[in-house]
Amino acid sequence: MSSPYHPATLRRHYEQAAADKTAGEKFYKLLADYKDRDALVLGYKGAAEAIRARDASMFNKLTYVQDAARTFEQAVSLDPKNPEIRFLRFSVESNLPAFLGLSKHVDEDREMLLNAALTHPKSGLDAEAFRTVRNFLVDRGHVSDEQAQRLSKVAE
Fold it and tell me: What are the tens digits of pLDDT across the range 115-130?
C-alpha cells in the first residue's frame, strides 16, 4: 500500500477530491505527471483532470474536461472491461452539461456498471469498489427502482 498509485489510495484521494477543492488540487498534482500505462491509474488521472475542471476558471474548464476525456479514452482502450475505469468515466460524464457533447459513453458505461454490480463478486470489482459503484448508481438515480432493488440484494 506504500505506492501513491495503489487503488485504495487513489480511491481515498478521489473521494476527498470530489468533496473538497484543496484535496482536488492535491489529487491533480499527484497524477499530473503520471506517464506510465496502468489503465486504472490513468482512469484516476482522468478523474483528477475532471475535478480540476470543476474548480478551474471558466476560461480553463473546457481544456481540463477535454484532457480528462482523452485520458479516459486511453484508460478504456488499455482495459475496456475494467468496471472501475468505466465507473470513473461515468461519474464524470454523467455530471457534464449535455451541450459540451462529451457525455457520449454514459449509457454504455451505466449498462456495463449495472451488469458488473449485479454479477458481483465476479464483477472485477473488489468489495470497496463494488460498494462505491452500487451506491453511486442507486443514490444518484442512475438505475430504475427495480434495478436498485436487485442491486440491494447483491452480497458484498
Answer: 999 999 998 899 999 9
